[in-house]
Amino acid sequence: MMRSRLTLLLLACLLPLSACDTQDPDPNNVQRVFITEVRIVDAPLLRPDGDDWDSLGGNPDIYVELVNATSGNIIESYRDENFSNVGDNDFPLVYDLGMGLPEIEFNSFNGVLAFDMYDEDPQLTKGDDDYMGSTEEFTLRDIIDSGTPQFVSLTSANSDIVIRITLDYD
């Protein structure tokens, strides 16, 4: 009887400790932020004028780039990992970072960021790719200050691009 009470007492003490691992970190203590997944939930499959993205018809070959929205510098490009001939039934499109693609790590949080979306064309240079649009601009500082959420949804101004990022904090 005494042993079962001790076991229950031990479990009661450990349960709150294990729950702490699943709580969001204190925003004041965040040292690094990692983007561990980029999930394209929706994208425009036709140009704004209703034409196909590809001149010979067919669906777009979608990829995104994470950019510094102030300088225009590319932080990460997934041109080589594009999703070919994307149709309505192909969503979501997922870049699972850390599983073959590196996680994106930040230790500075005030830079203004955005995701630019492109339709890759078969030419050899990015300059030939079609710009499809961008998400709203954001800063990691604003995300941290909002309570360190695990998932953040980003949309374009007209909501035809929706990207959900998964974050981890250290």
β-strand amount? 25-35%
Structural category is: alpha+beta
DSSP, total strands = 9
Terminus-to-terminus distance: 43 Å
Q: What is the correct CATH architecture? A: Sandwich
What is the H/E order?
A: HEEEEEEEHEE
Given the C-alpha coordinates, what overall shape results? elongated
CATH fold-level name: Immunoglobulin-like
Q: What is the CA-based Rg, rounded? A: 21 Å
How many domain regions?
Answer: 1
**Mean of pLDDT:** 86
Low-pLDDT ranges? 1-23
Fraction of residues in H or I helices: 10-25%
- Top-tier CATH class: Mainly Beta
Instruction: Please outline the major beta sheet.
Output: 5 strands, antiparallel
Summed up, the helix count is 2
Strands, helices and their partners?
Blueprint (H helix, E strand, L loop, with lengths): L1 H19 L12 E10 L19 E7 L5 E4 L15 E4 L7 E3 L6 E7 L10 E5 L5 H6 L5 E5 L6 E8 L1
Antiparallel strand pairs: 1-4, 1-5, 1-9, 2-3, 2-6, 6-7, 8-9
